[in-house]
Amino acid sequence: MHGQTNEVQGTRYSPTHIRATWDGTGSVEDASRALGFSRAKGYDLVRRGEFPCRVLRIGRTTRVVTASLLRVLESGEPEYNGAHTSRCTPS
What we know:
Blueprint: H1 2-12, H2 15-21, E1 25-27, H3 28-35, H4 39-48, E2 55-58, E3 61-65, H5 66-75, E4 79-80, E5 83-84
Antiparallel strand pairs: 1-3, 2-3, 4-5
């Protein structure tokens, strides 16, 4: 039964499932799970400005942009506040 729970959890945070079920933003907790780390680690990264995908702060609420999360999951490259670190070209 334990293996089945892990299988369901993995499917729940797959890019295909996220694309089909999430709105334009998701919670820091869910995005952290999708990226493979804990809720506490996710909020710590948000606080330090190092969360690997785009984060919106709306009043006292913090949301993760779903499109940014999907890009990070599919490419494996972080997008700190929309800045593509590997695609930066000097002006």
